[in-house]
Amino acid sequence: GTALVVLARLVAVLKLVEKNLADHKFLFLGAGEAAMYSLDGIVDSVSAVHPLAPLLALLKPNGKLVMVGLPENPLELPMFSLCTGRKMIAGSSIGGMKETQEIIDFATKHNVKPEIEVIAMDYVNTVMECLAKADVKYRFVIDI
């Protein structure tokens, strides 16, 4: 009974999805009132400073926003959006050995494979520029 909804900006989605968007379910940021109070929970993996109010507006009463991205600078916490609706914000790092093994087992069982781009060490500065522009398609793995 769990559905995955990807919150994305259109440009990011078009970079990620190389086939018909109808094959996926997306909730575009800026969807407005149609999307408000529609989600039980959100896992936010954005590692850049970004506003939390639009995410909190998507949560149903008692909804949970779990932060797993680690922005370099603090995020602004909109207390009114948080308190109205009894919403919660939690944080989590990658987990320990047990959680990591559970994810590996799940991925193996369901044939989930990462999409990565292997790069040489001398390409790191170029990759950092791409990351700063949000011009990335896969996770980068450095071949050392």
Please characterize this protein's 3D structure.
The protein is an alpha/beta fold and 144 residues long. The protein contains five helices and seven strands, in the order βαββαβαβαβαβ. Strands 3-4-5 form a three-stranded parallel beta sheet. The chain has a two-stranded parallel sheet with strand order 1-2. Strands 6-7 form a two-stranded parallel sheet. Helix 3 links the parallel strand 4 and strand 5 (88-91). The radius of gyration is 17 Å and the shape is globular. The mean pLDDT is 78.
Strands, count: 7
Taking the alpha carbons of the first and last residues, their distance comes to 42 Å
Radius of gyration: 17 Å
State the strand order across the main sheet: 3-4-5
Order of helices and strands: EHEEHEHEHEHE
Strand content: 15-25%
Percent helix, as a range, is: 25-40%
Task: Describe the structure concisely.
By secondary structure, the chain is an alpha/beta fold. It is built from 5 helices and 7 strands.
